[in-house]
Design goal:
Length: 417
């Protein structure tokens, strides 16, 4: 596509001489702008992908993909209905749960929390929780023992073997009115899933104990379904609706994880799209720098262009020379940006910790961002998309200056020389 003559002249024009130093400075700023734009876009998209993946993996690992609630009250005699749901294709598991709000108090403080009652066998098959036990063990998750998060343990000054007091608003009816249920439970495990909301606010206890504490008898508050593909649950949803209409003695309602976390999912998607658009402007500004630098180069090389034309160079050849000069800036800048962005993304947690130690500030607070570590997940498709966009803008930026160079009249260029 490009002859050796065109490549040689284009490379010669990229190198600067003393009187062309200003043009070279513009070219270097253009190259640096494209490199920083590409790197920034790759890093930000990787962090947002990692944030979304980490957050959803923990949210979906601790919460069901599809939750079934009673329209009124609790779900009673749920076992036959749960067994029917287990026969539906793409359903990996059905977990009965009891969930209720309580006031928790330890040796030093008190606050609100959520109690989640679950069968011991079910909690042990949740890898997000069972593999994140810091102290104690879930082997003793039975009877009156409860598991709490590491943040709650630190806040209430609790440890394995300590007693945690729970106060339920679902009180007992007495002759003097409703009396809140108050009971102390031994802490048998402390978990750390790395998500502030769960580590700070959730107390897990055996299902039978939770039923007794909340006075539900044999009832539960919800059935939690885990499916093979959380992003495509239409068939499962329809089958569950059909089963509930045919076999359930109670009116039920279904909520998917997207319904429960709808505002959160939409906020992440909107933020991701807006950040991509805003950061693309950095590359666009760098492309405009290429245009200005190439136009100045064309005006400075007017006499050289005229001489090349009189020596037999065609307009197409002149256009290719300047196109190759400008495109080289975009290609080199894009490659440098990819290397910088990928390298930064793969080591972002180490870089964050290094910056924190230097500045003495917390750059990624788990109370704000819900995660204890800064995640990053590179998507090859997105990296290719960023590269193609940067190269496309760079190539488009060189077309007009190259066309101007090709249209230069040799006679007018040499008239006053």
């Amino acid at each position: 596509m490009f002859s050796s003559f065109e490549r040689t002249v284009a490379w010669r024009y990229l190198r600067t001489r003393r009187r062309e130093g200003f043009i070279s400075v513009i070219s270097w700023f253009s190259l640096l702008g494209i490199a920083l734009g590409v790197a920034t876009l790759i890093i930000v998209m990787a962090v947002m992908n990692g944030f979304r993946a980490e957050l959803f993996s923990r949210v979906l690992g601790l919460n069901g993909h599809l939750n079934i609630y009673a329209q009124r009250g609790n779900i009673n005699a749920y076992e036959p209905f749960a067994n029917d749901i287990r026969t539906i294709g793409h359903v990996k598991g059905v977990t009965p749960l009891v969930e209720g709000q309580v006031l928790v108090s330890g040796s030093s403080a008190a606050s609100g929390a959520v109690v989640r009652g679950i069968k011991p066998d079910d909690i042990r098959v949740k890898p997000v929780l069972s593999k994140k036990i810091e102290r104690g063990s879930l082997q003793n998750f039975k009877g009156q023992g409860v598991a709490i998060g590491v943040r709650m343990a630190e806040r209430l000054n609790l440890n394995v073997g300590s007693k945690i007091t729970l106060v339920s608003p679902r009180g007992m009816q007495t002759a003097f009115g409703t009396v809140p249920r108050i009971q102390a439970f031994p802490v048998i495990a402390v978990y750390n899933v790395g998500m502030f909301e769960f580590d700070n606010n959730f107390v897990f206890m055996p299902l039978a104990t939770a039923q007794d504490f909340f006075g539900l008898g044999q009832g539960i508050t919800m059935l939690e379904l885990m499916v093979t593909d959380p992003n495509n649950m239409t068939d499962v949803y329809d089958h569950v609706i059909q089963l509930s209409n045919e076999k359930s003695p109670q009116a039920l309602r279904l909520l998917s994880w997207k319904d429960i976390h709808a505002s959160f999912v939409n906020a992440l998607q909107v933020e991701r799209n807006v950040m991509f658009l805003i950061l693309t402007l950095i590359i666009l500004v760098a492309a405009f720098n290429i245009i200005s630098g190439m136009i100045m180069l064309v005006k400075d090389k007017g006499r050289d262009i005229a001489i090349l034309r009189t020596m037999g160079a065609s307009r197409g050849s002149v256009m290719r020379i300047f196109f190759l000069s400008g495109a080289s800036i975009g290609v080199i800048g894009t490659l440098a940006g990819v290397l910088l962005g990928v390298g930064f993304s793969m080591n972002i947690e180490h870089i964050r910790q290094g910056l924190q130690s230097l500045t003495g500030t917390d750059l990624f607070s788990p109370e704000v961002y819900f995660l204890s570590q800064l995640p990053a997940k590179l998507d090859a498709g997105e990296v290719v998309q960023v590269v193609l966009m940067a190269l496309g803008l760079s190539f488009l930026a060189t077309l007009y200056p190259s066309w101007r160079a090709a249209r230069l009249d040799p006679v007018e260029a040499l008239r006053y020389e």
